[in-house]
Amino acid sequence: xxxxxxxxxxxxxxxxxxxxxxxxxxxxxxxxxxxxxxxxxxxxxxxxxxxxxxxxxxxxxxxxxxxxxxxxxxxxxxxxxxxxxxxxxxxxxxxxxxxxxxxxxxxxxxxxxxxxxxxxxxxxxxxxxxxxxxxxxxxxxxxxxxxxxxxxxxxxxxxxxxxxxxxxxxxxxxxxxxxxxxxxxxxxxxxxxxxxxxxxxx
Length: 202
Prior knowledge:
The chain is of the alpha/beta class. The chain has helices spanning about 10-20, 35-40, 55-60, 70-80, 110-120, 135-140, 155-170, and strands at about 1-5, 25-30, 50, 60-65, 85-90, 95, 100-105, 125, 145-155, 175-180, 200. The strands form 2 sheets. Strands 1, 2, 3, 4, 5, 8, 9, 10 and 11 form a 9-stranded mixed β-sheet that branches. A two-stranded antiparallel ribbon has the order 6-7. The longest helix has 13 residues, at about 155-170. The protein is globular, with a radius of gyration of 16 Å.
């Protein structure tokens, strides 16, 4: 599969590594391409290439907005038409303060993914990966009890199937928990985010 990632922070690079190890073609964009190209090489990614955001948007059928919440609107405005693309949304409505603390931002009672869907209206949005932690990326899907579950949500059945297939190739277990309205349980403070450990599929 072809996967395009916008953002080369912790989430973007972690997802790139996850998909690269599974053998997928990955395009990843940031505003500092020279530095990103070196990072991709240093990490030993074999199927990942740093590229301009426009090229990422045009080259991949599945796109991931792995930027800070505050940057999503600007990113969406800079992209070419995305008609029919799948947009995977790992974003959480968070703001990092100068002292290192994190604030949960208001979405006026709407699911955060509904807000993102308004920014990329021609895409088929699937909420996924927003609950993944750095240890999960590093250790992979296997635990002593079974495989870690990756819950997803969306309004488009075909897109959910495609994202589920992508997740399966990484070894994690996809589970559809509902539509975009239901995705509130995946947000900070949501029921599934309050669990003390990730969900496990035996």
